Structure formats: C-alpha cells, structure tokens
Amino acid sequence: MGAQNNVQKIVCKKNSDVVCEIVNSNNMITKKIVNILLKNKDVKLNDKRIHFNMATKNGDVISYFCSENFIKQNLKNNEALLETIYEDDNLLIVNKPSGIESCGKNSCEEILNNKGANVKAVHRLDRNTMGLLMLAKNEETLDLLKKATKENKIEKFYLAWVAPKYKGEEKTYTAYLFKDAKKSLAIISNNMQKGYTKIETHIKPLKDDNDKTLLEIRIHNGKTHQIRAHLSYLGYPIIGDGKYGKNEINKKFKEKTQLLFAYKIKFRFNEDNVLSYLNEKNILAKNAKFN
Known about the structure:
This protein is an alpha+beta fold. It is built from seven helices and 15 strands. Among the domains are: 64 residues, RNA-binding S4 domain (Structural Genomics Hypothetical 15.5 Kd Protein In mrcA-pckA Intergenic Region, Chain A, Roll); 107 residues, Pseudouridine synthase (2-Layer Sandwich), CATH 3.30.2350.10.
C-alpha cells in the first residue's frame, strides 16, 4: 500500500454508505481518484484489500493509500477539463466537469489558482453537477456578484434529464425548503414551516426521448440542492441522482451521476458599477449529453 504516513483511516458512522462515497465526502478527493484507488487495490475495508465499491456498516474501518503526488497528477489531468467559457479583467467563467468541487481542497478554484489565476468562486455547483462556474478575479467583483445573486440580478439556467416523462407545462413551482445540515439533505414542503425558506423553480420542457424529458430550469438565488430536491418532490427525479433520485431509474438509463448541467447565465444589472458592461449578456456552454 505504500508509505505508512500516506495511509488514511476512516471509521464509518452509519450503515449502508458505500466506500467511494465515504472516502469522497470525508477527504474532498474526487470519485475518479477513489475509483482508481479501488482498481489498484489501495483500499482496505476492515484490514482486507478490496477492488470494488462495497456497502459498509457502522464501525467499519476504511483505510487507503493516496499520496499527494498522485492527487496532484490527477488534478493536472483535470485542468484540461476546465474549459474557459468567458474571461475578462474581472471575471472568469469555466465549464466545471462532474466530480470536482467548486471551491476548497482539490477544487476548480484550487486547480486554477495553482496555475496562477488568483480567483475565488462566486457560487457553488454540487460536486457532480456540470456547468458554468463564475470565479471573481478581485474582491470588488466578488462582492458585487454575490450581492447581485442575492438580489436576483443574475439568472441561472440549467438543463436536466428527468424520468418519468414530464407531464406538465412550462410553469414556476413554489415550495419551501429546509436544509438538514447533519444529513446534507434538502427537504421540500408545500407549506411554510419553522426553518424553511421559500423557493421558486421555473420549469420548461424542451423535448421527450425514450421515457425521459429534457427540462430547462431557471432559478435566481438558488438554495443548496434546490433543483434536485424540488424535481424529486414533484415526481420527476433527475436521472443519475444517487441522493434524490430512484435506483431503478438510474439503473435503467445506466447513469451514476446526476444529469444536471448549468448551461446559461444571464446578467440583469440595473445600476452603474464596474460590471455594468455585463448587463443583458448571456453566457452559454454546451454538453453532448444535453443535445
């Protein structure tokens, strides 16, 4: 397994989570890296080497070898995946691939800063959500874009494949969301309750294809997991979503990662500031899975 000082250990605290998810969530290592470790038999479950993902139970001990050089090499491989969609003196927008965090350790932000970019993520996309990520090049831009997001002056558009087929029309759905931080779970309700926040999710069906529908979703100041949780609550879970989706649907379409893509950003500034030149500008990205 390599040098002892590079061996990490995790004690499982609950039943039925799989090894990949546990290592992934505890150490900010991408799922791709964990799967390589499994393939190389650099992971042990209760002191026995394993080479495939396995369910765990409370008290199980996962140990794995992963050197810093190995992580850095894989981060270099990810650099090519960070396609620049838009850039000016204040703002950088990249097309974030699935499996990488927006900010934090081993993230898009860190990869770019290691190349000398000196940027900070304006917002976050879920680790397994693909698409447009805004990064500010200076503090003034960061503050302005965060303020604009809170004031609904930045529209974010997503594409999602859902199943079963969407039966409704274009509509804005209103609900209330509670973020359970301990379970890392968003809970949706039709009624306002203590601790819940009002959300609005605009849904527009684009096309049907083999028992699934491609939706365009628009949000303003979105909440954590809003789209994934709200679509699931409405009966149209995103294909590939392991948390809010359905296993039988994910298996049917052979998808292990949610088919959710942040594909368009539109700026709607109504005052003069250093970013006024972005007003009414549309930033678009493409992804083959969402054609």
